[in-house]
Amino acid sequence: MRVALIPLAFCAILLSGCGREDPMNGTLRGNTPFALELPVGAPMMSIPEENPLTEASVALGKKLFFEERLSVPVGTSCASCHLTDHAFSDTLAQSIGSNGMTGMRNSPTLANVGYHPALFHDGGVPNLELQVLAPLHDPKEMNSDINAVALLLRDEMAYDLLSKQAYGRRLDPWVISRALASYERTLVSGWSRYDRYVNGDGSALSAQEVQGWQLFNSAALNCVACHNGFDLSDRTYQNIGTALDYGMDPGRERITLLPADQGKFKVPTLRNIALTGPYMHDGSMQTLEQVVEHFASGGLPHPNRSALMQPFTLSTEEKAALIAFLNSLTDDRSLDQVN
Known about the structure:
This protein is mainly α. It folds into 2 domains: 8-185, Orthogonal Bundle (Cytochrome Bc1 Complex, Chain D, domain 2); 193-327, Cytochrome Bc1 Complex, Chain D, domain 2 (Orthogonal Bundle), CATH 1.10.760.10. The protein is built from 13 helices and 2 strands; from the N terminus they run H-H-H-H-H-H-H-H-H-H-E-H-E-H-H. The protein has a two-stranded antiparallel sheet. It is globular, with a radius of gyration of 21 Å.
């Protein structure tokens, strides 16, 4: 789920439902609601009224998520760049898409993506329903067309049945976008040892990890200025001085066209951070040690660098404690709730 510009015509199609039959009629009314599990402390998730979570919609979404025929040529699925064993992120700095082409950015984790007010590193897409268009049509990612995908898959019994059960209509672009969004909303993170600790289990973290948590919250490091709340991200856009020249990828400026937004990227969640390297929007940092060293340095002096980027000093012991704490943010269970 990296980035591409979304064709406006497709946006109109997906928002309107193509002017076809009411998607809320037929078998959907009898469809079983999906029992979404939320961890202790998680906020309620806002689900669009026109796309409720149901057993059929998330099952269809999961089937599409792992479908390699979404790409041209066949072979690249959503799961190709969002690996289940890595909290639905990638292990490459920039993922490899159709025809062996390298994408523009690092593929972020999809953990808790259902809570995000905007998608991609630059916040260029407003909701999950529209998100699928970008990677699917990007020549460097799936190099495909959502209309062609719908025509290719709609006559298969499993897709036809699930589509009618979930949305009361045959598989089409509207259904594909809604089903994928539904599945992605079920990828909830919040079952880590850190969560058990903050919810009252004092034995869940080691003494070293508690020391790291205290450093994380300290005024000297001020990590919590941006990495706060349930998802350990305030979802603002910050320039943290990873480069002096962002000409190849201007970040948030690409969306707002404001020079003051050059080099700003969305603050990522720290959940499952031990699984989601390499780090930064371009995958330029391979290890958590490199990330900590970057923040300790205060970053490169780009004109838009955040005032929150202030250098600090850590001893070897403190650095190890901080990284130990970050490792405690890994979920003890799979993010995938769909059987």
